[in-house]
Design brief:
Pfam families: Glycos_transf_2 (PF00535). About 45% of the residues lie in helices and about 20% in strands. By secondary structure, the chain is of the alpha/beta class. Strands 1, 2, 3, 4, 5, 6, 7, 8, 9 and 10 form a ten-stranded mixed beta sheet that branches. The termini are far apart.
Length: about 325
């Protein structure tokens, strides 16, 4: 049966791409093979120096390639949203893929619950084309339903559920209300966006079957600069969470603080495990200033550090305490 796009202006797919000629075809083909096609696909060629734009441009009339100077994925997504004509925005990165049921599954949920403004879903984790895991469901792990609506997206995040960009479908008007992706954040801009959406629009739809494939392991390692940037942007995101708290209803603040403690713990653990003790000390100072170092934070730190680093980490923590940090 011939597949046809949604009615004009319904769904725009936004794909930021930088030097992605090796993966862009599979990414785009996964969109073009949807059982329900989008109305347009916008590829933001973020200053690529390979054939990314040329390859993408020749695959389908649904694809619109827009080239800009290299500005990062946040700026590229913002540009795509600005250029979009769709009522709904769906995201995908140039090295990931959708499953063929992605849009159909989410629009089925939307027909059942027409008042939700955004939704997400499960995804497979793929390494070298093999599925090696699945995303965390958090509080949804015991549900039997394939689809559901969660009353509070902040509670969903606090429970450890994964909201990944490649599964998010959001109304363009909702994005207009909460603002752009933060271009200052190189690695946490997506999570920052989900928090802002969750504060403004608590109810979120969720598809409890994998609807996308998230590729890992393409890069052998992060550079020291990239690791530092990741830590810095995590701190920036935490600062924004703290600034947001006064605007969150009191009965929901606990979820946001739980998530903030969880992210702070992860950031500091990464620094300690990598042996970056000076950097970890500075991070601890920053986290202390954010007043996130309560018992949940330290308990999580103590119980999740692997045995092979527990002794040096404990010694390091004691030295910090002696110095009054």
């Amino acid at each position: 049966m011939m597949k046809v796009p949604f009615r004009k202006g319904t769904v725009t797919v936004v794909i930021p791409a930088y030097n992605s000629e090796k993966t862009i075809i599979e990414a785009l083909e996964s969109v073009l093979s949807q059982t329900l096609l989008p109305s347009e696909i916008i590829v933001i060629d973020d200053g690529s120096v390979d054939g990314t734009g040329r390859i993408a441009n020749g695959l389908s009339d649904l694809i619109n390639v827009i080239r800009q100077e290299n500005s990062g994925s946040s700026a590229a997504r913002n540009r795509g949203i600005k250029e979009a004509r769709g009522e709904w925005i769906a995201f995908l990165d140039a090295d990931d893929q959708w499953k063929s049921n992605r849009l159909e599954s989410q629009f089925k949920l939307l027909r059942e619950c027409p008042n939700i403004m955004w939704m997400s879903g499960m995804y497979d984790i793929v390494r070298s084309r093999k599925v090696v895991g699945q995303s965390s469901l958090g509080m949804l792990c015991d549900l039997a339903e394939t689809t559901c609506v969660v009353p509070d997206a902040l509670e969903l995040l606090a429970s450890g559920a994964s909201l990944w960009t490649g599964t998010v479908l959001v109304k363009r008007s909702a994005l207009s209300e909460v603002g752009d992706f933060d271009v200052r954040q190189r690695t946490s801009h997506d999570t920052d966006m989900w928090i802002r959406l969750g504060v403004r629009f608590p109810r979120i739809g969720f598809v409890r079957i994998p609807i996308a494939k998230y590729a890992i392991g393409r890069e052998a390692s992060l550079t020291a600069t990239a690791v530092a940037d990741s830590d810095e942007t995590s701190i920036l995101m935490l600062e924004r969470i703290i600034a947001t708290l006064p605007h969150v209803p009191e009965n929901r603040r606990g979820h946001l603080l739980t998530f903030a403690n969880m992210r702070a713990t992860q950031t500091l653990q990464c620094a300690i495990r990598a042996g970056r003790t000076k950097h970890a000390r500075r991070l601890m100072n920053e986290l202390r200033n954010l007043k996130l170092n309560g018992w949940p934070f330290w308990y999580s730190m103590a119980t999740s550090i692997p045995e092979h680093v527990a002794i040096p980490a404990t010694s390091f923590a004691r030295r910090l305490l002696r110095r009054g940090i």
